[in-house]
Amino acid sequence: MTGACLRHARLSKEWPPRGFSMRLVWIAAPVALLIGLCVQPAFAVCNISDAKLEEAVLKSPELRNPENRYLVRDLRTLRNAAFLLWSYGLQDDCERLLANIRQLIAAPSMAKLGGNDEDLADEQVAAEEPQQAQGGEVQGKRNTPGAGPLINLDELEPGLRVDEMVGAEVRSSDDKIVGEVRNIVLGTKNRFDYAVIASGGFFIAGKDSIIVPLRYMQVNQERNSYYLRISSTDVKAVPLMPDHEYLWLADEAWRAKNDAIFEKLDSHPVPFDLQAGQQPTIKVQ
């Protein structure tokens, strides 16, 4: 308040003085606006919970269909991406992605509208991989000086995570590329653990895979390349996975036949129930 206003108030006994209220409004309005902006919570625009993804997974018959498990996984990946956009303050982009998530939740059949061009799929998948760690060379580097010995999977310390295996390259015992690890199947009821391995090469868009018991696999010291205990020639004798719905898990006859091929090609696998440092006992015929 200026000195003139105070003197005017004392002389006229008028409060507030003329012109004071208008001046106060002009000052208070921008201050109130600034305060209002400051007290807004950070990143309040994009509310990821509004997508109600998990509620939809529980209630939607389409999303609960086992055939659409891949879509649920993809939706959760998109939700995680929306969270990253939110955390970087990219509210508009976060909202757009949430809108896409809501679209897919409302119409899961949209997920089948994508293209199936294998060459384009190869390019898209390759773009996801760091250039320095793509791997997949036809001939490996086991003969290079300083290459450490391979390690049986049951001898690893610390233990092995599934995400360390999925997507990693797989080579034969003679260091030729076989493919990549596509999935891991955990053994139950005294059954073996298996790796589902692409049979057409590294990052190939085709669906052909072979099923390898983990006890017939090894890994290098860096844990970025996995090795079968059979040669590239022997790999050709391994049958392809018979179906992509994993019905073979319940087919005891097929699994026994598949496992017998590995047992024949590598008669001395390392059993997973041995204690660390203990050597398997080989029966001499």
- The span between the termini is 107 Å
| Total count of domains | 3
Overall 3D geometry?
globular
Largest sheet: 7 strands, mixed
Number of DSSP strands? 7
Report the structural category: alpha+beta
CATH 4th-level superfamily of the largest domain: PRC-barrel domain
Under CATH at level 1, the class of the largest domain stands as Mainly Beta
Helix proportion of residues, in percent?
Answer: 25-40%
Mean pLDDT: 73
> Strands across the major sheet, in which order?
1-6-7-2-3-4-5
Question: What fold name stands as the CATH topology of the largest domain?
Answer: SH3 type barrels
Question: Which ranges are low-confidence, i.e. pLDDT below 50, for 5 or more consecutive residues?
Answer: 1-15, 34-43, 129-136, 270-285
Order of helices and strands, N to C?
HHHHHHHEHEEEEEEHH
Percent of sequence in beta strands:
5-15%
Describe the structure.
The protein has helices at about 5-10, 20-40, 55-60, 60-65, 70-85, 90-105, 120-125, 160-165, 230-235, 250-265, and strands at about 150, 170, 175-185, 195-200, 210-215, 215-220, 225-230. The chain has about 280 residues and is an alpha+beta fold. It has three domains: about 5-40, no CATH class; about 50-110, no CATH class; about 155-265, SH3 type barrels, CATH 2.30.30. Strand 3 and strand 4 form a beta hairpin. Helix 5 packs antiparallel against helix 6 (about 90-105). The chain is globular. The model is unreliable at about 1-15, about 35-45, about 130-135 and about 270-285 (pLDDT under 50).
